[in-house]
Amino acid sequence: MLPGANSRDTRRVEVLSSRTLIAVSDFARSRAFYETTLGLKIYREYGAAGHVTGVVYFLGGGFLELTIGVTRPSTDGVRIWLQVEDLADEETRLLASGVTFRKRAELMP
Fold first, then answer.
1. 34 vs 38: CA distance, rounded Å
2. How far is CA 50 from the centre of its chain?
């Protein structure tokens, strides 16, 4: 516990779980990328009337959630930082899968 904090301290948020949410314009294409190209495993799917409208993937210590909802893609793009065991191997595998990089992978602290 932090100095001066107690179990009833209301000045801080107690995070129990977290996920990154991305609303996508092409749900099928996005799923193919995260599931087939990156190989992320599905935690859960959800939807309505028999149609899947969202999927949550395991992402290390958190989750990545894709939802349908963007009619126009963002010009800013999305950046996700993933730590992998062997950077060179993953970069080679992704390049072979047809992934293009704006910036080549590099070792980060």
1. 5
2. 24
Identity at 44, one-letter amino acid code? R
Q: What is the pTM of this model?
A: 0.69
User: For 51-81, b where at least 16 C-beta lie within 10 A, e where not — what string?
Assistant: eeebbbbebeeebbbbbbeeeeeeeeeeeee
Give first-to-last CA distance, the chain, whole Å: 26
Give residue-wise pLDDT tens across range 11-37. 666 666 788 888 888 999 999 999 999
Q: What's the rounded Cα separation, in Å, for the pair 46 and 31?
A: 13
Report the alpha-carbon distance of residue 11 to residue 2 in Å, rounded.
12
